[in-house]
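Example record for the data management plan.
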Amino acid sequence: MEHPTDNAVAVTAASGRLGREILQSLLARCRSEQVVAVARDPSRVQVAGIDKRRGDYESSEQMQAALTGIDTVVMISAPVAGGSDRLALHRNVIAAAKAAGVRKLIYTSVIGAELATQTMFAPFYAINRQTEADLQASGMEWIAARNGLYLDLDLVHIRHANEHGGVYRNNGGEGRCGYISIAELGFALAALACSDACNGQVVNLIGDTYTQAELVQFANEAYGFSVRYEPISAQQNFARFMADERIAARGEDVAKMLTGCFEAIAIGAFDVPSDFVKAAGRMPLSIPEQMAAIARG
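Corresponding structural encoding:
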């Protein structure tokens, strides 16, 4: 059921792309004075006309102050890069929200069956699932919103392949995976924030699942690319990531996470059912529609 939109909704770590999309979708549902962005550097929040508050996951006290007067919080998971203790950061936010009197907290987790524990993705999977458990034990209303893999990011790599030899390589093999654009996630998460229908539930925010070859073919058709998919081993893919200056600069953990994602895809850990309709109130856009929207910016 819809809850009264007189209640304020805050998005934490709101200066990134997902934060921006959630905030914009909230503004389509709520008055601007009901929408609050919380970020370590509020000046980096790219949405105008809303309350912007300083809140760092490192400081439970600062987060408590930022979340005072808030009914519902959308907590975006801490990034892998940077070497911080992500579980401790998440626990800081949960503790701060409870102390501030927040009624409901939505955590942006990640899809994945327990098979993922057999891959390099295991440490990251464990942090997400433990955060979900901590949230469920918090005493607040909660939703664990398990995001699919970001379609936007995979398209960057497919586009790069188109521009550099026309071969897209990874270790995902023939496994199927749920992808979703950041804009579609923003829409669904805003819907969850404005309704109590999914409280106390774990929801998978994806559409249909696809193989790597199918995803490449969709990109070829949407953008006029001429890319083919070629599977490689996990070891080869990890080495490839570490040879990429952009990824290597973010640390070995990021390369392991990315390689582990494709390992999880290969063994079926990311081939999960979709709860998008239940969460968002409509069908997700098709992959071609999402690709077209990404192209439009």
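Summary line stored alongside the record: The first strand starts at residue 9 and ends at 12.
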